[in-house]
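Repro:
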Amino acid sequence: MYRPYKGRSPIKGRVILGICIFLIVVAIAVFYLIIQENLVFTSDGMRLDLPFLNKNETENVQDENINVEELPINIQTQENIGEDTKNSGQSEETSPAKQIENPLFAAVLDVKKLSDAGYIESFSELYKAGAINCVVIDVKTSDGKLYFQPEDEVIKSSGAAADTSGALSNAIQKLSGDGLYVIARVCAFKDGQAPRTIRTAAAKTKSGVTWLDREMISWFNPYSPDTSGYFAALIREIQKLGFDEIMLTNLKFPTEGKVELIYYGEEEADGRINAVTDVLKAMKEEAEKTGVFLSVFIEQETAQSGKWERAGQSADKISELCDRILVPVNVNDIANADILDIYPQLSPMTEKTPITPVIKNVPPGGSVQRGSFGFVIEKSRYSAADFGQTG
């Protein structure tokens, strides 16, 4: 029997429309989850930071089978420390107690020239001339690059390890063998690599995207337990390299750029000074296991007033957990005044913690007046005259 056509069922059309809308929503959600890990917030707004567009990606040594956030950051046990000592042929009971070098008359080496034997020898010659007694070598820089090959899986997977470990080892052996005191310099919370990988330790905005400073560099969140774990592991790695001391810079909260957009949540109530102190405490515990000394560079604002809440630095609390404090000083200021005239707030700490100036703005061919506090200077080229009288 013939039935007239009445058109497509409206119910069926609505079902199809509903299915299409559902699939679109699911696709959007999946896309958001995929890109969320690569969103970063900068001073110019939000942007997508895709790994294959990262110019440092070719240098980033990572194991694609490792999920960094799931890796435990294990603290080495005393039994393991003892085993390492036994294997190295050293005895904790018979080793003489190390002494911190003070005052320091130190030069900062260019880590990219460590393979140049002539360059390394020039610092041994400065030592023999009485100009310096110490050298400082970068092992972790603000871009997140590591200048050694770590063994810890978290450290290995979160940093861009440069292929300089052989040159670094040779330089340390040569300089230490010649009598120089050798310091490893570590840029701490300012790190262009690790916070992007260990996202639970990164400073983020309230929406969860990684925050970047004006230099497009990410930062660690000092409140995060994973930050403490990372730096405890880092100290454990560096102390194996043979340094006498580890110098920490940027051990603070970020203070430049749109820092008001960083969201720390309820943890902010614990106080920034306590957060930075807790991370330093974890590092100090690791350093004490092997006897390597730990020093901290504090900011000018901290040195002037004794503490800087915004940065999370307290000179007094830091001095209790480190073996040396370093402070920034202009070359013209140090020539006309004692370090404690510049920073009188630090005077009570000098009885238990050495204070070393880091001299800024040393002109080419200029020299620094030698004083009882010593100094660290950084130049592209050095001569004995740069360090004042050489005896």
